[in-house]
Write a structure and sequence with these properties.
heterodimer; A: mainly alpha; 12 helices; B: 282 residues; mainly alpha; MetI-like fold; 13 helices
């Protein structure tokens, strides 16, 4: 006979569950509402469930301004990954494997953009980019996004690198491979789950970035979040709903692929270890 | 095993990039905050305290600062009140699959664009939005309620759309770390789950409360999108004012003054919290 387990923590209490599910609703309803309004052909910012239509998506993809913003955000995110992930990997390598003077300060420096206000960074980068005379360029956006996402890339790679044992690296060096060669041919492949996770997280963070882009963009370089923002302020049209749903889908897909890849990697590594054990 | 060349090759690019694109911009902001404002130029490179004086002595700007701090405190409190129980539910959930499902519900909003969440809340609370439409349809209201463009709306949306996912995530992992046997012993001694909660769980989860509150506060202080869109035009926050001064007024020194003040508040809050945590852990 299966006894009903005593509710030790009080989490099965109806009041606790009610509050929690209410909060979860509050967290998820806005997203669901956005998706619903995007397939609703009513032309104003309202909510009514009468008909279904994909007109707003067609308007979104046919409007060259929205297409340009979509492409620009994608391009910037891609290049941000190319800068932030290698730098983050190097930083993780430094703090996990090496000893050097000023290591604590180095780690603080890498993590600082995460801890300190983005607004100050936005204003500072605007002034700095103006000083470097690349203000308003795509490059300034890429650099700004890179410094903002560097901490995330660093933390992702570091989490995996900590678990990688050094014995394989030591064996390689003992066999005569140089430090650099060991790094590229052994350490990086072993840290691949972390590096891949970093790529996806940096991509999605850059794609969604708003406050920093607000300061760094001009009328020539309008990223997707910025265009959504000005659309909300001036010409509120449910195209925003369609755009937002596209963003939701991009985030979901990225999140799913990232988590699948990291668990597949973990699974395949476990299988590799099992095989070598059995041999 | 350690080669100095390799160490340098790995550390220098990252440190250089960080110093160049993070530390230097901060230093620029600090320096320009002491410069003079000018009519046709962003600034005049003469050292002066006039912008700091202008901010600290003008009741309008002091009100902006006060509104921002008020927003920060209320969002922090609301985030803790709304987020603690869900974090508790997730943290004490024994079944990992169920726990992952709950975590997904929290992580999904975190990875969607903040503007999308903001837009969703506008559709819910707007004049022709979900709440008003439903209440009017049911006959409860004759004309729509004004639920947005005021301070409470900013607090609620800033909490639920921006800080709550992170608060729940942090708190739940701290609560998860509380040993189950402590619950068993406490129930055996006190016989009451409520008393266990007050005397065991709350004190042990205090580091989590502190950490998540700090982030909620900092993010609320520097928030731009939510206060700007959902707030009433007469209640501006520091970020809105900073953006206005920087981009619209082209008054760089004054904008930098605002940034420096925000930075000082954030740094002070973070340091105070760290010091307090060290003291109480003795």
């Amino acid at each position: 006979m299966k006894e009903k387990q005593y509710d030790l923590c009080g989490t099965h209490h109806w009041a606790v569950k009610l509050v929690c599910y209410l909060v979860f609703c509050f967290l998820l309803t806005p997203i669901c509402i956005v998706i619903i309004t995007s397939i609703n052909p009513q032309p104003y910012l309202s909510f009514s469930l009468k008909e279904f239509s994909l007109t707003w998506y067609m308007q979104f993809f046919e409007d060259f301004r929205w297409r340009n913003s979509l492409w620009l955000s994608f391009y910037i995110a891609l290049l941000t990954v190319c800068i932030a992930v290698p730098l983050g990997t190097m930083a993780a390598m430094a703090t996990v494997r090496l000893r050097f003077f000023g290591k604590g300060s180095f780690e603080f420096l890498v993590l600082a953009p995460f801890l300190l206000p983005g607004l100050v960074l936005g204003i500072g980068l605007l002034i700095f980019m103006n000083f470097l005379e690349i203000r308003g360029s795509i490059l300034s956006l890429i650099l700004g996004h890179s410094i903002l996402t560097l901490p995330v890339a660093y933390l992702s790679v570091r989490a995996v690198l900590i678990g990688v044992s050094t014995s394989i690296e030591e064996a390689a060096i003992g066999l005569g491979a140089g430090r650099i060669r060991t790094f590229f041919e052994i350490t990086i492949p072993l840290a691949r789950p972390g590096i891949l996770t970093a790529c996806f997280f940096v991509f999605i963070l850059s794609f969604n970035e708003f406050i920093l882009s607000l300061f760094l963009t001009t009328h020539r370089t309008i990223t997707l979040p910025i265009r959504i923002w000005s659309s909300l302020q001036y010409e509120i049209s449910p195209i925003v709903s369609a755009t937002s749903t596209v963003l939701i889908i991009v985030s979901m897909v990225t999140l799913t692929v990232a988590s699948l890849l990291s668990s597949i990697e973990r699974l395949s590594r476990r299988e590799m270890v099992e095989e070598t054990k059995n041999r | 095993m350690q080669s100095r060349f390799f160490t340098l090759m790995v550390v220098l690019p990252v440190a250089g990039f960080s110093i160049f694109f993070f530390v230097l911009p901060f230093l620029f902001v600090g320096r320009i905050s002491f410069y003079k404002s000018a009519m046709n130029l962003p600034y005049l490179p003469e050292l002066t305290l006039e912008n700091y004086v202008r901010f600290l002595l003008d009741p309008f700007y002091l009100n902006v600062l006060f509104t921002t701090l008020k927003l920060g405190v209320m969002v922090t409190i609301l985030s803790q009140v709304a987020g603690y129980l869900p974090a508790y539910l997730i943290g004490r959930e024994e079944n990992p699959k169920k726990r992952n499902l709950y975590l997904m519900l929290v992580i999904i909003p975190m990875w969607t664009n903040m503007l999308v969440r903001l837009y969703g809340w506008v559709v819910i609370l707007g004049k022709k939005g979900l709440v008003n439409n439903t209440l009017m349809y049911v006959g409860f209201l004759a004309e729509p309620m004004k639920l947005i463009y005021n301070f409470p709306a900013v607090v609620v949306v800033q909490c639920f759309a921006v800080s709550l996912p992170y608060v729940i995530l942090t708190l739940s992992s701290v609560i998860q770390g509380i040993d189950r046997r402590l619950f068993e012993v406490s129930i055996g001694l006190h016989g009451s789950r409520l008393r266990t909660f007050i005397e065991i769980v709350l004190p042990l989860s205090l580091p989590g409360i502190v950490a998540s509150s700090t982030i909620a506060f900092v993010w609320a202080i520097e928030a731009y999108a939510v206060p700007s869109f959902l707030g009433s035009p007469s209640q501006r926050t520091m970020s809105i004012e900073a953006y206005f001064q920087m981009i619209d007024s082209q008054n760089w020194p004054f904008a930098c003054v605002i940034s420096v003040i925000i930075f000082v508040i954030t740094a002070t809050a973070t340091l105070l919290v760290q010091k307090a945590a060290l003291v109480t852990h003795r």
